[in-house]
């Protein structure tokens, strides 16, 4: 009704009614959350695609399934692309999903194109796993710029 974008990270995952799914602009489950939402066991890129297509058919406008070290699969009615992850040494994955979603929301709010926004979200998620703890692993803008320069 208000014509605003809605990003839903379904964590912890619980079944969601189609009526709710139809109101979601961007659904960002990880593999286990996508499995719970669809009944499709997500173990690889192919099964993630099948789960994403089911969620699109149920009304979600764009599905972004995070696949850990493989990256993030972005599927909507115009695209089907795997945005690769940044290669880092993971110390603590506690805040990775939250960092990804925060990065995605910030990038989209700044007007970035979707694939670029997911690339930036992957960067924020990658940064977060290189530190211990949840809040200490969330970067400032300057830390993210320096990290981006370091990881290419």
Brief description of this entry?
This protein has 152 residues and is α/β, with parallel strands linked by helices. Helix content is 43%, strand content 11%.
Please outline the helices and strands.
Elements (H helix, E strand, L loop, with lengths): L6 E2 L9 H4 L4 E2 L3 H8 L6 H13 L4 E5 L5 E4 L4 E4 L12 H14 L4 H15 L12 H11 L1
Parallel strand pairs: 1-2, 2-3
Antiparallel strand pairs: 3-4, 4-5
Shape: globular
- Terminal Cα span: 41 Å
* Fold-level CATH name of the largest domain: UDP-N-acetylmuramoyl-L-alanine:D-glutamate ligase
Largest sheet: 5 strands, mixed
Q: What is the CATH C level class of the largest domain, in words?
A: Alpha Beta
The structural domain count equals 2
- The neighbouring-strand order within the major sheet is 1-2-3-4-5
Determine the CATH superfamily of the largest domain: Ribokinase
Helix percentage: 40-55%
Individual helix count: 6
Q: Which stretches are poorly predicted, pLDDT < 50 over at least 5 residues?
A: none
Mean pLDDT, nearest integer? 94
How many beta-strand runs? 5
The helix-and-strand class reads alpha/beta
| Estimated radius of gyration | 15 Å
Task: Identify the CATH architecture of the largest domain.
Answer: 3-Layer(aba) Sandwich
Explain how this protein is built:
The chain is of the alpha/beta class. The protein has 2 domains: 1-85, UDP-N-acetylmuramoyl-L-alanine:D-glutamate ligase (3-Layer(aba) Sandwich); 86-152. Helices cover 43% and strands 11% of the residues. The protein has 6 helices and 5 strands. A 5-stranded mixed β-sheet has the order 1-2-3-4-5, sandwiched between helices. A hairpin with a 5-residue loop joins strand 3 and strand 4. Helix 2 (31-38) packs across helix 3 (45-57) and helix 4 runs antiparallel to helix 5 (114-128). The protein is globular. The termini are far apart. The model has no long low-confidence stretch (mean pLDDT 94).
């Amino acid at each position: 009704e208000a014509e605003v974008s809605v990003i839903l990270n379904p964590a912890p995952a619980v079944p969601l009614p189609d009526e709710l799914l139809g109101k979601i602009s961007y659904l960002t489950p990880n593999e286990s959350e996508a499995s719970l939402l669809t009944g499709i066991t997500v173990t690889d890129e192919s099964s993630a695609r099948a789960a994403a297509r089911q969620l699109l058919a149920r009304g979600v406008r764009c599905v972004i399934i995070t696949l850990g070290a493989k990256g993030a699969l972005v599927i909507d009615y115009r695209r089907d692309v795997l945005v690769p992850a940044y290669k880092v040494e993971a110390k603590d994955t506690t805040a990775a999903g939250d960092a990804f979603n925060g990065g995605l929301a910030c990038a989209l709010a700044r007007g970035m194109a979707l694939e670029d926004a997911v690339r930036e979200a992957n960067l924020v998620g990658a940064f977060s796993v290189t530190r211990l703890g949840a809040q200490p692993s969330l970067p400032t803008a300057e830390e993210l710029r320096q990290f981006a320069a370091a990881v290419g």
